[in-house]
Design a protein that fits this description.
The structure is a homodimer. The radius of gyration of chain A is 18 Å and the shape is globular. Chain A has one domain (8-117): Arc Repressor Mutant, subunit A (Orthogonal Bundle), CATH 1.10.10. The first copy, chain A, is built from seven helices and three strands, in the order ααβααββααα. The first copy, chain A, has helices at residues 8-31, 38-50, 55-62, 66-78, 100-108, 113-120, 125-148, and strands at residues 53-54, 82-85, 95-98. The longest helix of chain A has 24 residues, at 8-31. A three-stranded antiparallel beta sheet of chain A has the order 1-3-2. In chain A, 66% of the residues lie in helices and 7% in strands. Chain A is mainly alpha-helical. The interface between A and B is large, with 58 and 58 residues. Chain B binds a DNA duplex through residues 21, 24-25, 28, 32, 35, 37-40, 54-56, 64-75, 90-94.
Chain lengths: 149, 149
Amino acid sequence: MRHGQDGEHVSVGAWTKRCYLAGRAVMDAALRPFDLGSTQWYVLWHLKSGGPIVQRDLGRALELERATLSGIVATLVRKGLIEQTSGGEDQRQRLLTMTSSGEALWRQLPDLSFISQAAFDGIDEADLATTTRVLRLATERLQALARTV
Amino acid sequence: MRHGQDGEHVSVGAWTKRCYLAGRAVMDAALRPFDLGSTQWYVLWHLKSGGPIVQRDLGRALELERATLSGIVATLVRKGLIEQTSGGEDQRQRLLTMTSSGEALWRQLPDLSFISQAAFDGIDEADLATTTRVLRLATERLQALARTV
DNA sequence: CAATATTCGTACGGTAGCAAACGATATGGA
DNA sequence: TCCATATCGTTTGCTACCGTACGAATATTG
């Protein structure tokens, strides 16, 4: 994608990047006062709504590689917001639990729903559905391609 | 975007991220044998097709912050693929030029157009146009929002 | 049961992005 | 002319991705 050729193909690729980065920028700005990164927020959100979870399962839910999540978990543990225990049948696994400190921080965080609302409100539902369908199809194709390369 | 609410809003946000990362993954895999990152590729591509350029102008063309491009330029200079000279009227500016070593590498690189083709070929042109329009609008809104936060 | 293969988490090194702060250089006014 | 202001590039420090390789633990298979 985005390799200097004309046509809608490249446009979609370029705008995909811009849109992703722009959304993250707003999220990062909203979370900056709390010293929290956007993916860290997702981890807390998942723990808040789903309770304790095995690290690997959280990685699958958030679509993060083990190495990526490992670093994020380490950061959150260092901040005292979550706890990483090895309590389970499978001794390889790590169970993640929110601490009371994490719960306290969570209560202070602003509601971030304004971001997607600002981005997509008022846009035709059919167009949004089309966009989702195109992006999903392209993603599936790219992920399949990645497995062959 | 992507904050755990239902509806097309969140879908678009989530797929935007997935699609961007999937495309980059394929590009990275294709460029890995050449020890070249995707953004480094864009810099070389821009220099190859547009000739020498002032660093700041390249940053605007690629939509990168000065700090981001500064690091990428340093990497490419370290690899001997580009040259950074201060030849100009404005002594603050740096002019970027491809080296012969960079030209040689460029000739070895594969054509990456297969990536966007694999992603988007066969998809209805109107749907691609809709997707581009939605993503552009959302991006503009998010960038405007970022300026107020 | 022993050997092999898989999986989980981590460490390391790399790419890519940003904000903030700084020195050097232009530029515009007073 | 001189000072305030803006701009360019860099540095520092951070988030967040990935692949590879490794040890430990579990599964599977012979």
